Amino acid sequence: MAPTRLRGLIAAAAITVLSLSACSTGPAGGGTEAAGNNEAGSADAFPVTIEHVYGETVIEEKPERVATVSWVNADVSLALGVVPVGMPLDEYGQNENGSTPWKDAKLEELGAPIGSENAPVQYSELDGIAFDEIAATNPDVILAVYSGITEEDYQTLSEIAPVIAYPEMPFGTAWQDSTRIIGEALGLSEKAEEVVTETETAIEEASAEYPAFEGKTFIWGNLAPQGPEPIGIYASGDNRPRFLTQLGMVEADVVTENLDAAGGSFYFPWAAERANELESDIFVTSVDSEEVATAIAEDPLLSQIPAVENGTLVADTNPTRTLSLSAANPISLIWALDEWLPMLNEAAEAAEQ
């Protein structure tokens, strides 16, 4: 039986809000035989106490109804075989389901495809955390392990159900840590270790087919010609650089030597006038179109980035492909391998010329 607790007036009021909301999809109750089912979780693992940036959260009993916020958390829950009762719409790189190819495939496998009676409720986060919609799903736990929720958000969500916030840095939780923490919260620690091992093995085996990756230096950043912040760099605490490191590449010295500029964040700006200092074999970025990629090469300052000059800029124009690494998780990473590795290999081989 699912844990019970007082959820305050917010939960009761939310039922009406959800039924009228045009931003949410899925069954209003958020609960079916598939959605929210955590049969595999071990009841003997509870109670558990999980520490995070806002203190610690005690989960007294095995949660049956799981709601999530932000990116990654729903994907990890699905990777562990648990369909959330509620999860955010994907509103960047999304498909017609407000979802992603890897999430749709897993939902199908678990008998809860979007649009079916078993599907999770989906809610928009374009205007912030969807407190009312989350409360209406009547969750036993709310997963925010990969997120940037504020302490105020945390307190409000905690009135609905126990919340597992991120451990240290906003949007900086490694996918392995997200998987292990969520596994612990759901009584699925052994399964979480299996998923981490299987995913890391898949990445290792795939990257072995591309020997040019080994030892190549890289920078992953944003490039915006004529933008207010033309250059931004993702620090080593972000999942994008972590992925390239897993492939055998090495983060460029210019990044590691300037991590203080990140101030504990996953990202820091870089002056366009210093573009020529961004020395690396490969520079990876995401752009809106091929026209933007051309504009980077023609920009008087951005064109001075060594990788741009040398033809080893990887400019991804596919938002779904970008999302697979920016919101890295076990199921997105497996999908990403065939999408990213050939493109990265082309740049890595060009760097050897």
UniProtKB/TrEMBL annotation:
Signal peptide range in chain numbering: 1-24
Gene Ontology terms describing biological process: iron coordination entity transport
Pfam family, one: Peripla_BP_2
Residue stretches making up the Fe/B12 periplasmic-binding domain: 65-348
CDD domains cross-referenced by the UniProt entry: FhuD
The keyword Signal belongs to this UniProt entry's keyword annotation: yes
Magnesium among keywords: no
Subcellular locations according to the entry: Cell envelope
Annotated Gene Ontology cellular component terms: outer membrane-bounded periplasmic space
Keywords from the named record: Signal, Transport
Similarity comment: Belongs to the bacterial solute-binding protein 8 family.
Protein name per its UniProtKB record: Iron complex transport system substrate-binding protein
Organism for this UniProt entry: Arthrobacter pigmenti
